Amino acid sequence: MPRFFKSLFGQVVLAVILGVVVGLVWPDTAVALKPLGDGFIKLIKMLIPLIVFCVVVHGIAGTGDLKRVGRVGVKSLIYFEVVTTVALVLGLVLAFVFQPGVGMNVDPKALDPKAMGAYVENAGKLTGGGFTEFLLKLIPNTAVSAFANGDVLQVLLFSIVFGCALAMLGERGARVTVLIEDLSHVLFKTMGIIIKLAPLGVLGAIAFTVGKYGIGSLKQLGMLVVLFYAAVVIFVVVVLGTIMRVSGFSLFKLLRYLREELAVVFATTSSDSVLPQIMAKLKHMGIRDSTVGLVIPTGYSFNLDAFSIYITLAAVFIAQATNTPISMADLLTILAISLVTSKGAHGVPGSAIVVLAATLQAIPAIPAIGLVLVLSVDWFMGIARALGNLIGNCVATVAIAAWEGDIDRSRAHAVLDGQDVEPIEPAPDMAAPQVAPQSAA
Q1: Does any domain span residue 441?
Q2: CA 41 – CA 31 distance, rounded (Å)
Q3: pTM score, two decimals?
Q4: Chief localization class (predicted)?
Q5: Residue 120 gets which letter from DSSP?
């Protein structure tokens, strides 16, 4: 047991337990601990743009094969759209089969519209201008502003162009490529230092939540929460599990390999908090740098599997709770709009509610004010959203790497089996279990 708590995973588990205790016994103190969680996530986010830049540029320049990079990009987008559509349909089917909102008989006129003010405003910004405006938003005003704003898609766009230019220069760009590779080592070492603070961040996030909302918060709208968690589990085990088997790997071994990152995401409800570590671990599995560098950052905005389940499930729930009949045309509209609005979700404040509001704006039949019903349990559903999205992106990277032949299968199996494998490059301390046999904890 002492050895367990020396590991980062053990320390995170202990932090979760302490956070619940503090939240129950000293709720006022627990609420005051919120800056610990917020600060930890901000420390992680400050490095994400630079790490994405270094990984993508070095991956493309090191490959030198721009046709391969293009193939990976196209295959990634095809995969994302197909799997996201499956997730959207799953949410609709489960909502109609189990009908979580039926019987609530909520009068939309009795709901307080003030709670939705900021979300509706952001929803207007998200959908304003249509698809053309969305594409224009991918282009930063300057290369520096992309990094300053922390917009992963804008950084990714600049990184791809920069990496392609570097690859086209050949030997003349070799010194810059080496410099970027060295910089990535420094950034990963810096991330290793920050990751040691993960238990404090988890303690602050959990304590705040329990202290503010109470341990019994899940009782309100419990059916919706339980159904959403069940939907995410079904999607991960059945859909993603099948994709992993077709790719030649075990989903459960991958989950065990990533258990520390999943524990941090569970506590912080933010998949951003582990993006650099996830990229390092997937590269350690033997997946080509350029594939990891393209699929993971792109997936954070284009492959939101659990998020997609949430959109359709919540939309139908609101219709049922407010006794609003919806036609097949409305359902098809929800699917079509969700495929677009979900792509702009990453980085938007209150993204889940904002995207849901943006989706409902296109369907006048469903009262958008019904979003107030979901607000009280949105944080709890956010746990499953973050976990499902992260697992989905990791599976996508493995699947596309297998599809493209960009993975060392023998190394990947050895790593997933917990065998001692030499690291490819320095990685964050959180990734330590990748070079030593994993315990069953």
Answers
A1: no
A2: 17
A3: 0.69
A4: membrane
A5: H
Q: CATH number for the domain including 278?
A: 1.10.3860.10
For 330-374, what is each residue's pLDDT tens digit?
Answer: 777 777 766 665 655 554 445 666 667 666 666 667 776 667 667
Dihedral in degrees, nearest 10, Cα atoms 357, 362, 368, 370: -90
Which one, of 213, 198, 404, lies nearest residue 291 by Cα?
Answer: 404
- The encoded tokens of residue 50 equal 């630079």
Three-state DSSP at 350 gives coil
pLDDT for residue 209: 66
Residue type, 419: Q
User: CA–CA distance from 105 to each of 21, 29, 108, 221 (Å)?
Assistant: 36, 38, 9, 13
Query: What span, in angstroms and rounded, lies between the C-alpha atoms of 389 and 369?
Result: 27
Q: Measured on CA atoms in the order 127, 129, 134, 138, is the torsion positive or negative? A: negative
Would you tell me how many other CB atoms lie within 10 Å of the CB of residue 298?
22
Cβ pair 105, 430 in contact under 8 A? no
Residues 109, 125, 336, CA angle at the centre, nearest 5°?
Answer: 80
DSSP 288-304: -HHHHHHHHHHHHHH--
417's tokens: 């089996």
Q: With respect to residue 266, please indicate whether it lies within any of the assigned structural domains.
A: yes
- CB of 83 within 8 A of CB of 392? yes
Tokens 């080496």, residue located: 178
Read off the pLDDT of residues 66-125 as tens digits, 9 standing for 90 and up: 677 778 778 888 898 899 889 988 988 888 888 877 766 655 555 545 555 555 555 555
SS (H, E, C) 34-93: HHHHHHHHHHHHCCHHHHHHHHHHHHHHHHCCHHHHHHHHHHHHHHHHHHHHHHHHHHHH
Domain with 344, as residue range(s), is 2-435
Written as six digits, the tokens of 383 are: 């746990």
Would 217 be classed as within a structural domain? yes
**Is 45 part of a structural domain of the chain?**
yes
Question: What total number of domains does the chain contain?
Answer: 1
What DSSP character marks residue 439?
A: P
Tokens of 297: 């950052």
Place of tokens 């199996």: 413
DSSP E strands, 301-376:
none
